[in-house]
Amino acid sequence: EPDVTIVRGLKDMVVSEGDDVTFQCQVSHENARDVEWKLQDVALQNNEMNEISVEKGKIHTLTLRKVTEQDIGTITFRVGAHTCRA
C-alpha cells in the first residue's frame, strides 16, 4: 500500500460566531485510510455539528457548523504519519 502524504495542507481561518467554517486538506492517493480530524486534540466524528467528507477521493473536508467560542483552537488533520494544522 503506497504511503499517503499531504499534498495541500490546511489554511488558517477566521470566522464569526454562529457561522460555518470549512477546512480542506488534499492527500496524494485516493481512498486513504487512517485519517483523523481533531479540534484541540479531541477527535472529531461526523455528526450534526461536524461534517466530515471526501471529495474526488483525495480532498478531505471538515465543516464545523454554527461555531462558538468553544470552537476556537487548532484543527489537526492526520493521515498515517503525516499531519497538518490550522
TrEMBL record:
Q: Which residues form a coiled coil?
A: none
Q: Where is the Ig-like domain?
A: 2-86
Entry keyword Cytoplasm: yes
UniProt-listed PROSITE patterns: IG_LIKE (PS50835)
What is the protein name stated in its UniProt record? OBSCN protein
Q: Which domain of life is it from?
A: Eukaryota
For this protein, the record's InterPro entries field holds: Ig-like_dom, Ig-like_dom_sf, Ig-like_fold, Ig_I-set, Obscurin/Obscurin-like_Reg
Pfam families from the xrefs?
A: I-set
GO cellular component terms, alphabetically, are: cytoplasm
Source organism: Myiagra hebetior
> What are the subcellular locations of this protein?
Cytoplasm
Q: Which UniProt keywords apply?
A: Cytoplasm, Disulfide bond, Phosphoprotein
